[in-house]
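Appendix B. Extra example for self-study. Work through it before the problem class; the solution is given directly after the inputs so you can check yourself.
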Amino acid sequence: MLEEHAKIVQFITLAGEVTGRKKLQKMVYIAKKMNFPFQEKYQFHIYGPYSEELTLRIEELCNMAFLSEKMEDKGSYVQYTYACTDEGQQFLSTIDSNYPRLDQCINRLNDKSSRFLEMVSTLLYFDTLGREAQIEKLHVVKGKLNFSDKEVEDAFIFIEELQSCVTV
Amino acid sequence: MSYATQKLAEEKVFKDPVHRYIHVRDQVIWDLIGAREFQRLRRIKQLGTTYLVFHGAEHSRFNHSLGVYEVVRRIIDDIFKGRPEWDESERLLVLCAALLHDLGHGPFSHAFEHVFDLDHEKYTQAILLGETEVNAILKRVDPEFPQHVSDVIAKTYGNKLAVSLISSQIDADRMDYLQRDAYFTGVSYGHFDMERILRVMRPREDQVVIKKSGMHAVEDYIMSRYQMYWQVYFHPVSRSAEVILTKALHRAKELSSTGYQFTYEPRHFKKFFDSTFSLADYLALDEGIVMTYFQEWVHEKDEILADLCDRFVNRRLFQYIEFDPAKDYRKLTELEQLFKKAGINPKYYLVFDSSSDLPYDFYRPGEEGERVPIHLLMPNNELSELSRSSDIVEAITGKRRTNHKLYFPEDLLTQDGKKKMLKKQIMALLIGKSKT
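Solution. Structure tokens for the complete assembly:
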């Protein structure tokens, strides 16, 4: 009955910890685009694909004490780090939530910066378009971030690697 | 004269209980209203199952869509026109996006989307860009026009001011639905001084801002929204109806996958059950059709489907208790086991449901949420985030309120008959908590 909650606890357990709300949003979105069965609905927001449902679920899981949220004042902003608690581990043990190769996907995502994942998730959001149109759209909606050609190229390579890693 | 600038010989008006009149002068808008995909919205209620609690809430997405169009029309024709920050060439685009923003909603949207893993925003795009009457009308304006309308609705259009008119924390969509839903439900919340807010709106490069003198009207709007969410949109009895509706559709889907022979064959649903439906199949559905199936399925051989449909059609809803998943998640497993022993399938008769709302928030650069704040235009022409000036808004900024409930069929658990003791044990476990 709390399977969707369990999937997120599992996700963060596999990641060890995730630093940044934006990063967590993009990681789950990209995993979802790699066909892992996350149910949270995404829409396009300020930083790219964003799920209010995921925000809510994370808050609930923190309230339930299944996840810990650590706040760090970075001067101009606050950064949040999420990890699974012992109670969260016990909760996980009551629910079957094992997804082959999700760990490999998460590890690759967690190694990347929030900025890079914002670009990757935005490109994936427009993946029904051709590559040129995808890039054009990226620059329209993310003009202020000034992604370089090299960064965009790296993003496409990363997407291909991720796709082959989860389908092997 | 091009189709984009073509005006009707005489202005058309729709009488409207919220805005008094909805004015249409543009030929394109008039044609869109007449398109079959837009007319379909007459057959989809704005508030889904809420009519089972507030009997007046029978208004449709058609009413609301016209209302959003009218609010946007007033903003850009009466307030923005002639201001340097507003690009008048975007006028028709924004009007079309306002009118069509809910085009992809299916019958009983949220339940239907949940069961069939759909997203109404994707269907809005599909209708705008697919082979539809709406698409044909938009293409007459310009071959790229349907895509631009879709981009505004999907919030991926380059002009953020245009997007913010329809989608932001103070947008035409919310301003219409709060007032309209308040009117049709008959509640006294939801009312605020929209005329005042419209008069103090000003266009800026990336968003609409509000003159400082309009701050109190905006406070009222935010509080109205807060109250409407908890008093109407999250009403637990309405949620109970939605839970039953969702479970009935789930049951029909499951039966179909096992080869069950329906007495009343689900012709309209077949392709949804096996995910092979087309846009035409999607558009063929409305709430009248769903209700017809439910009324027929009341007589199905499958007891669960028949019971769930009967509950929905005849408003025999589930009871509910407050449920704290942090404390009680282990009891869920226990309850599920007891339900099974009692011969009541917990998959359909024991349902956990959450409601949550964040009335207002602003994002901090780099981190936090993703909401564009409401900005006040101060007398010195600088912008100031709303909660810095408003004590009322500051008090609720970033404060999410969440509520969890557990739904169950109290009637099945209290009736005399088989396994009475077991059912008593279940009731003790359930009602041992805060009985509502």
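Self-check: Strands of chain A lie at 17-19, 43-45, 48-50, 67-73, 78-84. If your reasoning did not lead you there, revisit section 3.
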